[in-house]
Specification:
Elements lengths: L1 H23 L4 H4 L6 E7 L8 H16 L5 E7 L3 E3 L5 E2 L2 H12 L9 H9 L4 E8 L7 H11 L4 E9 L4 H13 L4 E4 L1 H11 L17 H31 L5
Parallel strand pairs: 1-2, 1-5, 5-6, 6-7
Antiparallel strand pairs: 2-3, 2-4
Length: about 260
């Protein structure tokens, strides 16, 4: 009976948990995830390759300011990196309404051009304090050596609580994604691989009444958050099948035999 209760409980939770999971991947969380730290620095790749993506990224970043930074009273700053690093403010700032308006205006004046000086951007973020959550969005590899950046980040974060979360934005370069994954995991951060197609897959997973055939498996995702979600959904699908099998057995036993 314990197995039956577990399976039935999981089956009932299947629809109840969907709303919460949908919230976790709505709005700015769809791209940046949930901001976990009190003090945060957003690093935005504004290299030339981001030209077509930048308008949408600006909208997502504006959403982040009002969805998470302002209501949760973070201390924050923003920096854009291309051939050089441009900073909104050189130090962390309380997320007052005035500061958020100014930050949003700063975001909308950004232009895509030049290279990708990732190392200098990380250096700026690591210099903001001893405990900072860094959220870096990029669409490709840096100009400098990936191994050099990983070594420098490890050195700069020693003795500090610097966590770098990385977002791969519509990037199909496996080497670039692997670099961003290593950078995040090295600092105990999260790696998120944002792809438009993945959003459709998540919608299919969370859609009420979706069938097992319509739901993707965790192998379809690269990012940490989505892989975690997919694994949980795989478990729930397994329990749902068990629950259906137990229910069928119980109904068969309760049905009187006609003779």
């Amino acid at each position: 009976m314990a197995a039956l209760w577990l399976a039935l409980s999981a089956h009932m939770r299947m629809s109840g948990c969907r709303g919460q999971e949908e919230d976790s991947f709505a709005g700015s969380r769809r791209v940046f995830g949930v901001l976990l730290e009190r003090d945060v620095c957003i690093l935005l790749d504004c290299s030339g390759s981001m030209a077509t993506s930048l308008p949408e990224v600006k909208r997502e970043l504006s959403s982040l300011i009002w969805d998470q930074l302002r209501p949760n009273r973070h201390r924050f700053t923003l920096a854009a990196f291309s051939g050089e690093v441009q900073t909104w403010r050189p130090t962390l700032t309380e997320a007052s309404e005035e500061a958020c308006r100014e930050a949003e205006q700063w975001v909308w004046q950004l232009c895509a051009h030049g290279g990708t000086c990732t190392l200098q951007a990380v250096q700026f973020a690591c210099g903001l304090g001893d405990s900072v959550g860094v959220y870096m969005l990029s669409d490709g590899k840096p100009d400098s050596s990936c191994s050099l950046i990983l070594q420098a980040t490890e050195r700069m974060s020693q003795g500090k609580h610097i966590i770098v979360h990385t977002i791969s934005y519509n990037c199909n370069d496996s080497a670039a994604n692997e670099f961003l994954r290593k950078l995040a995991h090295q600092t105990k951060g999260r790696f998120h691989c944002f792809q438009g197609d993945a959003d459709l897959l998540v919608a299919a997973m969370l859609k009420e009444g979706s069938t097992e055939e319509a739901e993707p498996t965790c192998s379809a995702f690269e990012g940490d958050d989505l892989r975690g979600l997919a694994k949980e959904m795989d478990k729930l699908r397994h329990f749902r099948k068990q629950a259906a099998a137990f229910r069928k057995i119980l109904l068969e036993k309760q049905t009187p035999v006609k003779g």
